[in-house]
Write a structure and sequence with these properties.
Layout: E1 2-6, H1 11-22, E2 26-33, H2 51-64, E3 68-72, H3 74-90, H4 97-116, E4 121-123, E5 129-133, E6 136-140, H5 150-153, H6 158-162, E7 164-165, H7 173-182, H8 204-212, E8 217-220, E9 226-230, E10 257-262, E11 267-271, E12 277-288, E13 299-304, E14 312-318, E15 322-332, E16 339-344, E17 347-357
Parallel strand pairs: 1-2, 1-4, 2-3, 4-7, 8-11
Antiparallel strand pairs: 5-6, 8-9, 10-11, 12-15, 12-17, 13-14, 13-16, 14-15, 16-17
Helix pairs in contact: 1-2, 1-7, 3-4
Length: 358
């Protein structure tokens, strides 16, 4: 097959590209330029979109012996990921930009461009497994539970998954680094990327204030009693306890957690930890990673709402526009805007965006 290897500049994507070449595929390495001015995004080893990363990706491609190109995806990234991040927070939701990046950039814009150029698919260094089953190609969790990335890949539909290749899903991370050293790849010991790549300082609240303003608002309890003030309700998230700046005696001396964010009134509502308990979840914009479940029929499975969270046993049902989930045990601190992923054992069933909770 003719494949595009999306090379971030890290060890995982480099080994994935090398494995594809070794398997006999015709491979071209591509690094995605996600900003027209890379200096305004993070510089250093914390993100995955830096100038240093592009140099590391080029060196890896040279060692592997494949052609290398840089694709300008700045406009698509800004419109599909950065603007979405801002709009979601301004509406009081908590988005996951990595989900949007995988959906809109790595497996939509890149895959579309690759197929337009005559390629069969895209290789990435994500940790997940693709298997052929009786009902088609399906995605499963990676062998290494500490690196499994099926959660952030669950936004891919069946057509996108048909062109997606994840060569690392059957290997643990430590062995990938050993393999990278054996192959002579400079990035063998490079730290993993983390944090949001387009927030230069890692200070999400400060970054949001710079773009959405810092209008003073009230922090209140569930009865409406004012306990303190803030500089932008959108800089808080459901379940947050630290950095609230509230009057502790007025709060009864007990720890308080963010229960609700009201962007229209610029108000943050806080309360006890028990008040964060969620037993029912409704997700909208469902995406199915395989056969669509029979509508209005209950199924047993597992729900995951954070990239590295534990799967929770549940009953789920899909309607025409939503996924409805009832958890066996309550979950604490779930925010609208987060990703909801449904599993059948290790198989990814589909995903949705959390719209509401009870």
């Amino acid at each position: 097959m003719k494949l595009i290897a999306a090379m971030s500049g890290g060890v995982d994507s480099a080994v994935a590209a090398a494995r594809a070449v070794e398997a006999g595929h015709e491979v071209i390495g591509v690094h995605l330029a996600l900003s027209s001015n890379p200096q305004k995004y993070r510089s250093g080893a914390r993100g995955c979109c830096t100038i240093e990363d592009s140099h590391d990706a080029r060196r890896a491609a040279d060692v592997i012996g494949i052609p290398f190109y840089i694709w300008d995806m700045a406009e698509e990234f800004h419109d599909g990921v950065v603007e979405n991040f801002l709009s979601e927070y301004s509406e009081g939701r908590t988005p996951n930009p990595c989900l949007r990046c995988n959906e809109k950039i790595k497996f939509a814009a890149v895959l579309d461009r690759a197929k337009g150029l005559g390629f069969d698919g895209v290789i990435t260094g994500h940790y997940a497994q693709m298997r052929e089953t009786e009902v088609g190609r399906m995605m499963f969790r990676a062998i290494d539970p500490t690196k499994d990335q099926s959660y952030v890949l669950a936004v891919l539909n069946t057509e996108q998954l048909a062109g997606a290749h994840f060569p690392l899903g059957d290997t643990i991370k430590d062995d990938i680094r050993i393999e990278a050293k054996r192959r002579g790849l400079y990035v063998a010991n490079k730290p993993d990327s983390h944090d949001i790549c387009f927030v230069p300082s890692g200070d999400n609240a400060g970054w949001l204030r710079d773009r959405l303003g810092s209008e003073v608002g009230s922090i209140v309890d569930e009865d409406g009693t004012k306990l303190g003030e803030h500089k932008g309700a959108y800089t808080y998230t459901i379940g947050q306890r630290r950095g609230l700046g509230i009057n502790v005696p007025s709060a009864g001396g007990e720890p308080r957690y963010v229960l609700k964010i009201e962007p229209k009134t610029n108000t943050v509502v806080v309360g006890s930890h028990e008040a964060l308990a969620v037993s029912k979840i409704v997700g909208d914009r469902p995406i199915w990673c395989g056969p669509k479940p029979t509508a209005n029929t209950e199924f047993r499975g597992f729900a995951q709402v954070r990239a590295h969270g534990s799967p929770l046993a549940c009953t789920y049902m899909q309607t025409e526009t939503e996924i409805k989930v009832v958890l066996d045990e309550p979950l604490f601190g779930l925010a609208a805007g987060q990703g909801l992923v449904i599993y059948d054992g290790d198989r990814v069933v589909g995903s949705a965006t959390v719209a509401s909770t009870e």
